[in-house]
């Protein structure tokens, strides 16, 4: 496979995927013959564009925009938009690559893509975010459409940003259609979409635990991040009787041994989503410990004794040193809410030490699954109830559990869900690629 040497995150995503492929490739001569892997690592299309916008002082600002259309083998490109200063081509490509296989696992007809910009929404006014989103969509609109490519949210892109993006798309095209998911409830959004990634993560983790005769009830959990995925992971863990004792942001973490109760979680939602504040404010309000992040040291959040850990912030947030701390403290399950939250060697440490690992491709697929359901509802011009969507989400996560565990049993070791997820999704995408010829 041809990989650019400077694209570290993309290389890492492909490398860990190829480790799983090693287990099946000799049995699949048609995959080698049709150069499926070589084709999979090359995006079908990658668009990079200039995003000029005017700040509140009247100065011109320039950011770089991306949309990677990785694979349309099984459906229109589908995947989120990320707004974060760290965004670059390598991060976009790793996320798009992961998305292809994640979407395949949902069982819904969605290809894979990802996009975003190095724009930093932190500290920007609503008007600045709107002007940025409008400029971003002024280029993006020509590359997307309800049957072509359907973006959604990711880090830095929530309901506010999706609203601004949708408004501009509609103005440019004069079409009201399901071109984005994660829309507001008044203009085509699906109920349970905000909750879906976190809820889905907990549903899948629960299926894995039950398979081992373990439960969430009464267990102590670590959650990192404090954004969309973290918040709804805490909400579902609480409702299933677990206790969550941590949250974090890029500046630091809070440790609340008495648990982040539903009341405290309501405060976090208000703090992060409305006030756009920082997690240290939680420590001040509830008089608990706050530890500032020192990136030269292992992350203290992964050195707290607990039963299960749910990294829900960003890629590579669990290093080798963090993995060793978690294992030494007796962690039993890692549920990956973020995309690729563990370094490759850290994942290896978990697998070698018998820690159950719910890999991101499967574990955080609930978000895109409900995005797929939002596309269905938009096409049919109807709206399902929360209960209906939640039930479909649970069915989809159960389907994912069944397919990754049976692929693990058949092609790898029992409970190696990393191999299970990679292999089950690969088989589906590669079959569609072979059927469609050399495209
Ligand atoms: P949000 O923007 O809502 O929250 C992100 C959280 O992670 C914030 O607490 C943020 O802290 C923290 N964070 C982000 N970047 C860094 C960093 N470089 N170092 C430390 N902390 C960081 O994003 P989401 O909750 O939507 O996304 C979180 C993860 O889940 C991402 O990996 C995303 O790709 C993945 N995901 C999200 C889905 C969704 O539906 N939203 C679907 C599937 C996966 P701070 O405020 O300081 O930046």
The CATH superfamily name of the largest domain is Leucine Dehydrogenase, chain A, domain 1
Regions with little confidence, pLDDT below 50 for 5+ residues:
none
The helix count comes to 16
> End-to-end distance, in Å?
17 Å
Question: Main traits of this protein?
Answer:
single chain, 439 residues, alpha/beta, Rossmann fold, 2 domains, 47% helix, binds NADPH dihydro-nicotinamide-adenine-dinucleotide phosphate
Explain what this protein looks like in three dimensions:
This protein is an alpha/beta fold. The chain folds into 2 domains: 8-178, Leucine Dehydrogenase, chain A, domain 1 (Rossmann fold); 195-358, Rossmann fold. It contains 16 helices and 13 strands. The strands form 3 sheets. It has a 5-stranded mixed sheet, with helices on both faces. A 5-stranded parallel sheet has the order 7-6-11-12-13, with helices on both faces. It has a 3-stranded antiparallel sheet with strand order 8-9-10, covered by helices on one side. A hairpin with a 5-residue loop joins strand 1 and strand 2. Helix 7 (193-211) crosses helix 14, helix 7 (193-211) crosses helix 15 (386-411) and helix 15 packs across helix 16 (417-435). The mean pLDDT is 97. It binds NADPH dihydro-nicotinamide-adenine-dinucleotide phosphate. Residues 84, 86, 153-156, 197, 225-230, 249-251, 312-314, 337-339, 364, 367 line the site of NADPH dihydro-nicotinamide-adenine-dinucleotide phosphate. NADPH dihydro-nicotinamide-adenine-dinucleotide phosphate binds next to helix 8.
């Amino acid at each position: 496979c041809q990989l650019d040497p400077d694209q570290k995150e993309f290389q890492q995503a492909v490398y860990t995927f190829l480790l799983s492929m090693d287990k099946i490739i000799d049995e699949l001569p048609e995959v080698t013959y049709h150069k499926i892997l070589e084709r999979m690592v090359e995006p079908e299309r990658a668009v990079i564009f200039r995003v000029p916008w005017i700040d509140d002082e009247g100065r011109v600002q320039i950011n770089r925009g991306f949309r990677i259309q990785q694979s349309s083998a099984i459906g229109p490109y589908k995947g989120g938009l990320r707004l974060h200063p760290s965004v670059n081509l390598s991060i976009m490509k790793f996320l798009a690559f992961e998305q292809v296989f994640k979407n395949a696992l949902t069982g819904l007809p969605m290809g894979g893509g990802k996009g975003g910009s190095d724009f930093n929404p932190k500290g920007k006014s609503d008007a600045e975010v709107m002007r940025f989103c409008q400029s971003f969509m002024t280029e993006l609109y020509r590359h997307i459409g309800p049957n072509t490519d359907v973006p959604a949210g990711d880090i830095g892109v929530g309901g506010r940003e999706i609203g601004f993006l949708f408004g501009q798309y509609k103005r440019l095209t004069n079409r009201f259609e399901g071109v984005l998911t994660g829309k507001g409830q008044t203009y085509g959004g699906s109920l349970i979409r905000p909750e879906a990634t976190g809820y889905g993560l907990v549903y899948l983790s629960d299926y894995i635990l039950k398979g081992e005769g373990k439960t969430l009830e009464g267990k102590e959990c670590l959650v990192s991040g404090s954004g969309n995925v973290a918040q709804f992971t805490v909400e579902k863990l609480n409702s299933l009787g677990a206790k969550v004792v941590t949250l974090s942001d890029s500046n630091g973490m809070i440790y609340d041994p008495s648990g982040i109760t539903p009341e405290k979680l309501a405060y976090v939602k208000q703090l992060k989503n409305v006030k756009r504040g920082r997690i240290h404010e939680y420590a001040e309000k509830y008089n608990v410990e706050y530890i500032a992040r020192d990136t030269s040291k292992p992350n203290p959040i992964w050195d707290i004794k607990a039963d299960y850990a749910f990294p829900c912030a960003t890629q590579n947030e669990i290093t080798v040193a963090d993995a060793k701390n978690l294992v030494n403290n007796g962690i039993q399950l890692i549920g990956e809410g973020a995309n690729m939250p563990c370094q490759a060697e850290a994942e290896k440490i978990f697998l070698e030490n018998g820690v159950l690992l719910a890999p991101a491709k499967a574990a955080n697929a609930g978000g895109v699954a409900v995005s797929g359901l939002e596309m269905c509802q938009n096409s049919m011009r109807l709206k399902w109830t929360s209960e209906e969507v939640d039930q479909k989400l649970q069915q989809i996560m159960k389907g994912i559990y069944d397919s990754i565990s049976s692929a693990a049993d058949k092609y790898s070791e029992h409970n190696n869900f990393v191999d299970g997820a990679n292999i089950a999704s690969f088989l589906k995408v590669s079959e569609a690629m072979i059927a469609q010829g050399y495209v």
